[in-house]
Specification:
Length: 349
């Protein structure tokens, strides 16, 4: 069961409450390059991104958010460090949310100034605690406890200023520390939580760390938005987030494909067949369970609950539905026959 948090609006998009767990990413273009940044946001949106963060590193880049808003459809979050005046400039430029870091945004007075501007414009603030920029007073302490206390320090400042339109993130590159921090925070507050493992590395490393950390929390019922941090093309982040959310049972985006790991009985080129089936079905906007199996003896039985599947054999393949064989065809015709049966299945539903 998912923990019920308060509902927060980020532009036209709502998070928390009964809303689905939203997918977020961040641009890696120069925010001041409006055309390049708008193009990247469009690519992210096409991939399934629902909220996008941009770096507001000075007042000029913060001001560029106004022009970006004219060109994109999804909410824009301004990522601000060190200077509260940049956060205010981003809010005034139309940012749908601002992210500030407890360890480096400045004094309580500065935080209150950001809160006042955000309240005036109806903009939520994400308190983003990160082990890489914790206040010195937390150095040498337990990382998960430090993340929680650092974030709560800023939350208390915002609450003292009469501001409660808050989202919280607690990110570390250490998976266990992140998970422990989010679990603790979930017990203490009902603010929406943005999940992620920071500095997770390039694709291969990030997928493992993010699936472990974000996946564990989603299975606990924790989390309202997610970002899979990947060094490289941010479109990969969106695709990975969709996969994690679907595997955790939080969202449905496309068919699920199960495939056997292959063994000595495999007599078909199963890996390329898997990718061909995946490419054929990835844009189907509904849930189906599809099996791609390497053995015609065990395949239908092992994937009995699949809606449709393939089991390969020695030069031939079997297409089955709900565990029952429906066609036996030569291997060269297998993919075409599978597509025909798939289309028939889709028409019947």
């Amino acid at each position: 069961m998912r923990k019920k948090t308060r509902t927060i609006r980020i532009g036209r998009t709502a998070i928390g409450g009964e809303e689905p767990v939203r997918i977020q990413s961040m641009t890696n273009t120069d925010t001041a390059d409006i055309e390049a940044t708008a193009a990247q946001i469009a690519a992210l949106e096409a991939a399934g991104c629902e909220i996008v963060r941009v770096a507001a590193y000075d007042k000029h880049s913060a001001g560029c958010i106004a022009k970006l808003k004219e060109k994109v459809n999804i909410p824009i979050v301004a990522d601000v460090h060190f200077d509260y005046r940049i956060a205010i400039a981003a809010i005034e430029a139309g940012a749908d949310k601002v992210r500030i870091n407890p360890g480096n945004i400045g004094s309580e007075q500065n935080i209150q100034k950001v809160a006042d501007a955000a309240r005036m414009h109806g903009v939520p603030i994400r308190v983003g605690a990160n082990t890489g920029s914790l206040d010195k007073k937390y150095w040498g302490t337990d990382k998960s406890a430090a993340l929680v206390e650092s974030a709560l320090d800023n939350v208390r400042c915002l609450e003292k200023a009469g501001f409660s339109n808050i989202v919280i993130a607690l990110k570390a590159s250490n998976v266990a520390a992140s998970v422990a921090a989010y679990r603790r925070m979930s017990e203490l507050v009902d603010y929406p939580l943005h999940l992620g493992i920071t500095e997770a590395g390039a694709y291969e490393s990030s997928i493992v760390k993010s699936a472990m950390g974000i996946g564990a929390l989603l299975l606990d019922g924790i989390g309202d938005t997610v970002r899979v941090s990947i060094t490289g093309d941010p479109v990969q982040e969106v695709r990975a987030a969709r996969e994690i959310l679907q595997c955790a049972g939080r969202r449905i985006f496309s068919p699920e494909i199960v495939a056997c790991p292959t063994c000595a009985r495999t007599r078909i080129q199963l890996e390329p067949l898997y990718y061909q089936v995946k490419a054929m079905t990835q844009d189907i906007p509904k849930y189906l369970k599809i099996a791609v199996m390497g053995c015609p003896v065990n395949g239908p039985g092992e994937a009995r609950d699949a809606d449709i599947g393939i089991a390969g054999g020695e030069g031939v393949g079997i297409i089955f539905k709900k565990g029952k064989p429906v066609r036996k065809v030569p291997e060269a015709e297998l993919l075409r026959a599978f597509e025909e049966e798939l289309q028939e299945l889709l028409r019947a539903e």
